[in-house]
Amino acid sequence: MNIKDVAQLNIIAAFGLKNAPPETQREFLEDTVSTILDRVVEKIKERLNYQERQEFTRVCRTDAPETERVAFLNAHVPDFEDLIIQETLIFKKDFAERLNAST
């Protein structure tokens, strides 16, 4: 499976949820997004020093304004969107490999 195939992989269909109720699909997608965001957060933390990690945790876990979160990410993780795309592709690739191994 090449990168284009991975990028176009519809995990709802691949999991056999194409005809599932919308609520089931929504829950599945929420779990998937949560998994990907956990991976993104870990990648971000790997890049930050201790003080920056403390600040990152503060702006993400408090009622800090969205503008403060965005400012932090712009200053410390300017490739945030690329990181999300990369981790999404890795997730899909891992999924596709497990799917192919089971067939």
Description:
- This protein is mainly α and 103 residues long.
- It has one domain.
- It has six helices and no strands.
- The longest helix is centred in the middle third of the chain and has 26 residues, at 22-47.
- The chain is elongated, with a radius of gyration of 16 Å.
- The two termini are 14 Å apart.
- The mean pLDDT is 86.
Q: Can you give keywords for this protein?
A:
0% strand; mainly alpha; 103 residues
- Give the beta-strand count: 0
pLDDT average, as an integer?
86
> What share of the residues does DSSP label as strand, in percent?
under 5%
Cα end-to-end separation: 14 Å
Low-pLDDT windows of residues: none
The major sheet is characterized as: none
Query: Which overall shape is indicated by the principal axes computed on the Cα atoms?
Result: elongated
Total count of helical runs of at least 4 residues: 6
The proportion of residues forming helix, as a percent range, comes to over 70%
Radius of gyration: 16 Å
Count of folded domains: 1
What's the short story on this structure?
This protein has 103 residues and is mainly alpha-helical. It contains six helices and no strands.
Ordered list of secondary-structure elements with their pairings:
Layout: H1 3-8, H2 11-14, H3 22-47, H4 50-61, H5 66-76, H6 80-101
Helix pairs in contact: 3-6, 4-5
